[in-house]
Amino acid sequence: MRSAAPVVNHKAVRGRSTSLVVVLLLAPSVALYTVFFVWPQIALLILGFKDKGGAFTLDLYLKFLSDPYYLRLLWRTLLMGFATTLITVLFGVPLAYLLARMRSRWAVFLLILTTFPLLVSAVVRSFGWMVLLYRNGFVSDLLQWLYITDGPTQLMYTLPGTIIALAQVLLPIMVLSLYAVFRSIPADLELAAMSLRASPAVALWLVTLKLAKGGLYSGSLLVFSMAISSFATPSLVGGPRAAVMATSIYDLTMTVLDWNFAAVQATILFVTVLTLAVIYGRLLNRQGGVQ
Amino acid sequence: MQKYRLTRRSLLAGVAAMATTPLINSQAFSQANRFQGRSLISSGFGGSTMDIIADAVFKDFDAETGATTTQMPMQSAAALARMIAERGNPQIDMYQFSGGQEIDATNGGLTQPIVGSERLAKLPEDLKDPNGHWAAWAVIAEGLVYRTDKFAEPPTSYEDFFRPELKGHIAFPAITNGYGVDFLVMLAKTFGGDEDNIDPGFEAMAKLKGETIFAAASDIPTLFGQGDIWLMPYDTGNTFKNQQAGLPIAFASPKEGSPAVKITACIANGAPNADVASAAIDQMLSPEAQIKIARGMRWTPTNPETVLPDDLAQHVPNVSQLASLDRVKINQRRAEWADRWNREIAS
């Protein structure tokens, strides 16, 4: 009894001090998030349920959900997200695989090189795309030179132009997500599969890509949510004709000064991203369970 | 007798004192270093425009009064949103607007009167608020901006936007840009409508749906350069700026009239440095500052006492030549038009 009591006390004291340390460690970020994220988000949520006079209303949500124009806006935003994700997957998988399997000392240098688009300001990068995508720009000239089109092509101020510009900036996110996963898969597994008479393509598919699914999910979730919430690129490259939720929210807040409806659109966008993130998370977990 | 003489002398002295008191006061008003250690924060238009205004107005103002003026770049619409967000606790003392936002701000109780400016008192009625809440310190003429190498004769009318040979070479600003709204109103006026009857404007603009729509003045260099654009509605100031950058473009006044945009200043209600802001706005209305602004940007002076030198006068339209749109009606309908524009023109 005598000897047991101090041990229990000691444990209790250590437990208390550990939880105190945890609280102290978390306090700054919790305080920061409460003040700068949770509270504004709640204020935004409340704003969307108010009419101009401040009374409770569901009209603004009904206005959004019953108007084909706004539903098209949401659909266009999601389409931009899906298309951008697809392009980054198509370009990112081979690139990340190559970089992860590369034995050259250039591998690290090339990896740093792929992150370059992230280091350039969105505004500067968008102006670069403007020069390329205009009717008299490089892309239009190249398409004509290759006889793909027989007249000038205007990609500037269109949704395809926005998707191209977004895919370029978000490709590094996909590559970095996949790179780490490919690195963690031993190349020996492919060799083992091939020794069991799998062709290289089948080995790549059955072993490497299936094991890399987790990286593919997390990379595409990141790219998708960043694409549909990005503002600068759709605003500068897409313009009013390729309006998406982010630019619509900006216009409502800054030009039209209808903050209540802007709050509704912001909430709908936020809930959409959150829902997709949860669905992705479920898929990720199921994948983990199988492994 | 002696008593009478003394009385007369004191009376004279009194009269003299009364006559000179305002002089002493006004001397105190323009006295050097009277804002020593004070600071003034103003919104600004950004880029080279902001630099030219700093050079024409605030550099001298700071040197004469000892104040330190800072301009924070923001577009007019964003500035008004900021003003609303800071209602009751303004961090920015003074706002500069170019899209009629001063009327919304004044009606919304976001401004306070400019005090002690004699130049404001002399400003024509349509260039200031009746209660002194805002003052127009410049006016910009809008009209047709065209590529000089593509036009044998300068364009003369808003009808030129519909010439078949220009198809694919037209650009116009979005409704979120103040000039986009003015273009819509001018199209309405050209085809039989006006601020109250905007339908002809939308009908005409729908015919330009396939043309390039842009957001801001920063797009202009690339539009005329890579964009293969030959004609757009914009203003004298940006035409001049891009001419200086080497673009072969020129400005033409349309026969339907050049809409005028007032460049205004107002003071945020409850601003901590309202007295400094009042004096700064007085400085913006001075002929010296307005000539510098006209030279730097081709903006039309508003002070009737400003006389432009001959070399400038031929490039800067006089304020009396400009047509004024009904900004009150336009501001009331902006949201409704923006929604309709998004549906009918942009999609």
Task: List the main descriptive attributes of the protein structure presented here.
heterodimer, A: 291 residues, mainly alpha, MetI-like fold, 2 domains, 14 helices, globular, disordered N terminus, B: 347 residues, alpha+beta, 6-stranded antiparallel beta sheet, two-stranded parallel sheet, 13 helices, 10 strands, 43% helix
Task: Describe how the helices and strands are arranged.
The complex is a heterodimer of chains A (291) and B (347).
Chain A: H1 4-48, H2 59-66, H3 68-101, H4 106-114, H5 116-119, H6 122-133, H7 138-145, H8 159-184, H9 187-195, H10 200-211, H11 213-229, H12 232-238, H13 245-256, H14 259-290
Chain B: H1 2-29, E1 39-44, H2 47-65, E2 68-73, H3 76-85, E3 94-97, H4 101-107, E4 111-112, H5 118-122, E5 134-147, E6 171-173, H6 178-190, H7 199-206, E7 212-214, H8 220-225, E8 231-235, H9 236-244, E9 249-252, E10 260-268, H10 274-284, H11 287-297, H12 310-313, H13 327-344
Parallel strand pairs in B: 1-2, 6-7
Antiparallel strand pairs in B: 3-10, 4-10, 5-8, 5-9, 5-10
Helix pairs in contact in B: 2-11, 3-4, 6-7
